[in-house]
Design a protein that fits this description.
Chain A is of the alpha/beta class. Chain A is 23% helix and 34% strand. At the A-B interface, helix 3, strand 8, strand 9 and helix 6 of A face helix 3, strand 8, strand 9 and helix 6 of B.
Amino acid sequence: MGDDDEHNSSSTDEGRKEVDIYPLSCYYFGSKEAIVFKDETVSDRITRMKSNYAAYGLRTSVEAVLLVELFKHPHLLLLQLNNSIFKLPGGRLRPGETDIDGLRRKLSNKLSASRDGNEAEWEVGECLGMWWRHDFETLLCPYLPPTVKKPKCTKLFLVRLPESRKFIVPENLKLLAVPLSQVHENHKTYGTVISGVPQLLSKYSINIIDI
Amino acid sequence: MGDDDEHNSSSTDEGRKEVDIYPLSCYYFGSKEAIVFKDETVSDRITRMKSNYAAYGLRTSVEAVLLVELFKHPHLLLLQLNNSIFKLPGGRLRPGETDIDGLRRKLSNKLSASRDGNEAEWEVGECLGMWWRHDFETLLCPYLPPTVKKPKCTKLFLVRLPESRKFIVPENLKLLAVPLSQVHENHKTYGTVISGVPQLLSKYSINIIDI
């Protein structure tokens, strides 16, 4: 639809963005040594965030939206921790690190054979959306809350996968392909950020490539 | 945030998109003759949609996201019908009409002094998202549902407002400025499409311009 737009191409180009996705069977999945998590509990995490904040100020998180095809429907790749929490692959930036460098580092750390692998292999594309929150609160907003002086930000990036690759995942994490239709508005299971991903992708034409 | 990205500028540009918004007080609001609605009831509407479908096939709807500033927070302009239903300004395309031409026509029809006014005055920008549905069902999906052969599509476009203009609204409609924070995830009051707008805007840096 809308392919008959001829005027004003600079503004309609955006509406025609495409993403090619490949069958899940094109990818190889293996495991590697477990990742050591820094915090045992939520309160440990908050303590660590506070001390990091004191040392470095606010840090941005970057997360990746990775898609594959299964049963003719786009599926989102999610990491699952302890058979419960779902996360998009990603994490916090180091002080001074760019969004793209940080996301590549995190993706290699969590999804590649070697942490020091070829990070350029990750094709980090456009920012799809951002979520903001008060310093140490859990409530997320898709806009900068009016009363917040020092917000924390999570940015989502579209990462286009090649037609084949290996995913090597720490053995204490599971990498799952979940249908967009299951994720959409399913806040309870997937949380605010993940359950909103189908909407952020809605302007893209998703092409299923048969191999 | 993210302003320190220097590599790979083609893919980070998208993450830096900006929207300038102006105070509500910069705009003039007036009224004009009521719009005649084609349907009295939902069942009238479905009957009309079916007969249109038989005559023209499926038609795309286009809707505008228009922002103003009030109390230092971005507000979304919504039309309200009968003190109840909220709608983004827009409507269905005519057969063969482009997204941009159709949206400009609808915006002039609902928000300008004259229907035949200068439609180019509306700066229709990028597509923010799309919603799909089965032919005559009301359930909306932000992805093409796998089983649907002939989906209907609603496309949302960002329309940047100039620093001043007149809005002349049919007297049976109200034009309201609603804070993004009130719209966000408020499905009950605003419906699926409108309540998702803050998330679709989240990748933009919204600049409040003081006049």
